[in-house]
Design a protein that fits this description.
Elements lengths: L1 H5 L4 E4 L9 E4 L2 H8 L6 E3 L14 H7 L4 H11 L3 E5 L9 E3 L12 E5 L43 H9 L6 H6 L3 H20 L1
Parallel strand pairs: 1-2, 3-4
Antiparallel strand pairs: 4-6, 5-6
């Protein structure tokens, strides 16, 4: 959605059905589709499965490697072969090359949700502004002893009435279900990246 708002026409590819995806969608193996059709696109954004790189599950990296595919190296190689501008997104701790970090606090959102981005084109990123996120939300963290939280947590089960609506507003997403929302990144992130990519494409076209 962020890339759409920045000015791109969007085609989504995934091996599973995505009935709530709001743009053109193709159900296919993403790497196979990339090899066959990648050069048809101006820019490619890839979000390989993050579970194998995340510590949220409480499992060690060694345990997770056997359970989840670690696809970033293969995705990077495929993208580099195409020679198109690309962006790879993943969680903190993922082996991205020279990544920049985006955070909800940079865009006035009520989430933090740090995510890493690797690109073969220059993307300038701001710094986190956690100081602007004031405590005002209900917390389920017993360690806070009743103190309000600064952000909405978008993970796990829904815990109280109205929490799902809060998560949707905090992320800037209203078309996903609960599980999809926990896997998503705010459209503000890709809008920010997309505007810079549009400027790069227009500049290169003018030259």
């Amino acid at each position: 959605m962020g890339y759409h708002r920045a000015g791109f026409d969007i085609v989504g590819v995934d091996h599973k059905p995505q009935p709530r995806f709001p743009f053109e969608f193709i159900q296919a193996n993403a790497l196979e589709y990339l090899a066959e059709h990648g050069r048809e696109f101006d820019v490619i954004h890839a979000s390989p499965p993050c579970q194998g790189y995340s510590r949220v599950s409480g499992k060690s990296r060694k345990e997770q490697k056997g359970e989840y595919p670690l696809q970033i190296p293969a995705v990077r190689t495929a993208l580099q072969k195409l020679g198109r501008p690309y962006v790879i997104e993943n969680v903190e701790g993922a082996p991205l090359e020279n990544p920049f970090v985006l955070c909800g606090s940079m865009f006035g959102l009520d989430v933090r949700r740090h995510r890493l981005f690797e690109s073969n084109t220059l993307i300038l990123a701001p710094t986190c502004r956690h100081d602007l996120q004031a405590p005002r939300f209900r917390t389920l963290d017993s360690r806070r002893r009743g103190k309000p939280a600064c952000v909405i947590g978008v993970h796990g089960h829904i815990n109280y009435a109205g929490e799902f609506d809060l998560r949707c507003r905090a992320m800037g997403i209203e078309w996903m279900n609960r599980y999809e929302l926990t896997q998503a990144i705010p459209p503000a992130y890709t809008f920010f990246i997309g505007k810079q990519l549009i400027q790069m494409l227009e500049r290169d076209g003018a030259e």
